[in-house]
Specification:
CATH topology of the largest domain: Rossmann fold
CATH architecture of the largest domain: 3-Layer(aba) Sandwich
InterPro entries: AMP-bd_C (IPR025110), AMP-bd_C_sf (IPR045851), AMP-dep_synth/lig_dom (IPR000873), ANL_N_sf (IPR042099), ATP-dep_AMP-bd_enzyme (IPR050237)
Strand order of the largest sheet: 2-1-10-9-11-12-13-14-15
Structural class: alpha/beta
Organism: Streptomyces polygonati
Number of helices: 15
Number of strands: 26
Protein name: Class I adenylate-forming enzyme family protein
Helix content: 25-40%
CATH class of the largest domain: Alpha Beta
């Protein structure tokens, strides 16, 4: 099984190399391997069996990955939970997956005292009871787990509705990992600071670099100061984040006094890279950039644009392409009937290959809805250029149709962000009696400005049918932990 084989190889090849680091401790590959084997045996003694679902509720720390790998050894499914969810949301996920146990940090567990009756085990990861698990009896024989056995239920980011549970098997992790490694070709001396949470598909990036023998530095939540300090302290070569995080890091006062010279590559994804942030980062950091385009339903990262393909800041005026699909996976732009579109023509991006999910947990209706002729629908509108690179334009659900003409909110947002007074922006469609739907712009202003000024700025670049009728100023654009705009919250303000 892929996750177990990953640990066995790295114990054999790099036993004394540091595998994981968090704010409390570090472990070598040999220690990580042995601990997960011990922990698997202890969890089996506590009644966790093959096929059981176990929820994990924690900030990023070494014990989270120990739990994932130990449960995978048993053939049990780990179910990572977003630690920012409310009690009803956590309970709802635990009920839907039928979790029999919850592993988590004590402070978070204390917030969720009322759990369904089928939860028969609660263990705090940050207490001595967890540390003691398996240290008395030691490793025990574990079952053979096939690559097609489900190993995890990863939940979507839920920017448009209730999070869906994506059922993933080891074959998915392996396909994405090997395809990514074939393109990125990471060296085994990599030290990666991971700014992304370990509770959804973005964690596959960390698993992939772990397969190459890299050291992963974990943080209990992102702050610019914490990320900067981690890069300097550990002499990190790689940094994995979303573009908004990079903006905050560059804006932090500490960025000018922090030694970031060890950085070789910044991996970014989940949202488009603002061109001003990219230009600033290229000038100040002098390292390479790698774009990550992924989706939980297709196994995580399936498209990448490497450092050698990134344009110089002055050479890109619209957007940076996502890149090419990794070996083993296939992606294309299709029209309404599912047929592949010619190069350069905008359609929905669809994906297939061994990395795709088994389906949504106990939801065949939703699974059928996301499939199109055997391909997984991403919900992203984009096109494939003559070089085979995928370019994203917008989300299908965010598309505004004004009097029969397509208006892409991301295009308006991008132009708004070029105004010096705009710190952040989001555009949604609102009903209109005359045109059916029109764009409304929400803006976070960095300095004094007014709606008339910004509308005039848009008029210099956008055709009349694309321009918002009005601009509303807000304190903050709502985003999820992955940096994606939660547009349902903005539509609710209308």
């Amino acid at each position: 099984m892929w996750l177990t084989q990953l640990l066995e190889r790295n114990r054999q090849c790099f036993p004394d190399r540091v595998a994981l680091v968090d704010e409390h401790r570090s472990v070598t590959w040999a220690q990580f391997h042995d601990r997960t084997a011990e922990l698997a045996g202890a969890l089996a003694d506590l009644g966790i069996e093959r096929g059981d679902r176990v929820a994990v509720l924690s900030l990023d720390r070494i014990e989270v990955l120990e739990s994932y790998f130990a449960l995978a050894r048993l053939g049990a499914l780990f179910v990572p939970l977003n630690h920012s969810l409310t009690a009803p949301e956590v309970t709802g996920i635990i009920e839907r997956v039928g979790a029999v146990a919850v592993l988590g940090e004590s402070e978070l567990l204390d917030r969720h005292t009322s759990l369904p009756d089928h939860v028969r085990l609660r263990v705090a990861l940050d207490k001595p009871v967890f540390t003691a698990l398996g240290t008395v009896t030691g490793p025990v024989p574990q079952p053979e787990v096939a690559d097609t056995d489900p190993v995890a239920v990863l939940h979507t980011s839920a920017t448009t509705g209730q999070a869906k549970g994506v059922t993933v098997d080891p074959a998915s992790f392996r396909a994405i990992g090997l395809g990514w490694l074939a393109v990125a070709r990471p060296t085994d001396d990599i030290i990666m600071v991971n700014c992304a949470p370990l509770y959804h598909g973005s964690m596959v990036v960390s698993l992939t670099y772990m397969a190459a023998g890299a050291t992963i530095v974990l943080m209990p939540g992102f702050t610019p100061q914490r990320a900067l300090a981690a890069v300097e302290q550990h002499r990190a070569t790689h940094l994995w984040l979303v573009p908004q995080m990079l903006r905050f890091m560059l804006q932090a006062k500490a960025s000018h006094s922090t030694d970031l010279s060890s950085l070789r590559e910044i991996l970014y994804g989940a949202a488009p890279m603002p061109l001003d942030v990219y230009a600033d980062a290229v000038t100040r950091l002098g390292c390479g950039f790698r774009q990550v385009y992924g989706m939980t339903e297709v196994g995580g990262p399936f498209v990448t644009l490497g450092p050698e393909e990134h344009p110089a800041p002055g050479e890109v005026t619209v957007r940076i392409p996502c890149g090419r699909v990794i070996p083993g996976m296939s992606a294309r732009a299709v029209g309404a009937g599912g047929g592949e579109l010619p190069r350069g023509e905008i359609g929905e991006i669809v994906v297939r290959g061994p990395g795709v999910m088994q389906g949504y947990w106990n939801d065949p209706g939703a699974t059928e809805e996301v499939l199109l002729n055997g391909w997984v629908r991403t919900g992203d509108l984009g096109f494939v250029d003559e070089g085979g690179r995928i370019h994203l334009v917008d989300r299908t659900k965010d598309l505004i149709i004004r009097a029969g003409q397509n208006v892409y909110p991301s295009e308006i947002e991008r132009v708004l962000m070029t105004h010096p007074a705009v710190r952040d922006a989001a555009v949604v469609g609102i009903p209109d009696e005359d045109y059916g739907e029109i764009p409304l712009a929400y803006v976070v202003a960095e300095e004094a400005t007014d709606a008339r000024t910004l509308l005039a700025h848009l008029a210099g670049t956008l055709a009349p049918y694309k321009r918002p009728r009005r601009v509303e100023f807000i304190e903050q654009v709502p985003r999820n932990p992955a940096g994606k705009i939660i547009k349902k919250q903005l539509r609710g303000r209308v």
